[in-house]
Amino acid sequence: MAKDLNIIILLDVYGQLLTEKQRFAIDLYYNEDLSLAEIAEEIDISRQGVRESIKQGERHLAEYEETLGLVKRFRNISMRLKKIEELIEPLDHEVKESIKEILDGISDEI
Fold first, then answer.
1. What is the phi-psi region of residue 45: left when phi exceeds 0, alpha when psi lies from -120 to 50, beta otherwise?
2. What is the band of 40 on the pLDDT scale with cuts at 50, 70, 90?
3. How far apart are CA 7 and CA 100, in angstroms?
4. Could you tell me which of 10, 33, 47, 78 has the fewest CB atoms within 10 Å of its CB?
5. For 70-98, how does the pLDDT look when each residue is reduced to its tens digit (9 = 90+)?
6. DSSP assignment string, 19-31
């Protein structure tokens, strides 16, 4: 199975919406880099069962993102904040620091 590292981000955002078994299997596979056989041993199901659990969880995560779009929104906002930081670079130090404080507050909230 080829690993889509975007799944790690989706798992962070939507993981609580998965079943415990799906979340645990995906976490072990992507974050702990365990093989399907190692995960099967860990959670006491077949290797095929692990594969199906991961695939089903991945489908759910993709559906959640397609419906809710939280990761896409986060990325868009982050890009815009970075662009603002680039644009304020030539400003006066005091003004720049005030704007950066506001941007940091926004970043902390997203």
1. beta
2. very high
3. 31
4. 33
5. 999 999 998 998 899 898 888 888 888 89
6. -HHHHHHHIIIII
How would you class 11 by CB atoms within 10 Å of its CB: exposed for 0-12, middle for 13-18, buried for 19 or more?
Answer: buried
Query: Amino acid letter at 4?
Result: D
| pTM for the model | 0.78
CB 51 within 8 A of CB 108: no
Quickly tell me which residue has 């790690």 as its tokens.
Answer: 8
Q: How many residues does the chain have?
A: 110
Segment holding 98, helix H or strand E? helix 93-109
pLDDT in tens, 92-104: 888 888 998 888 8
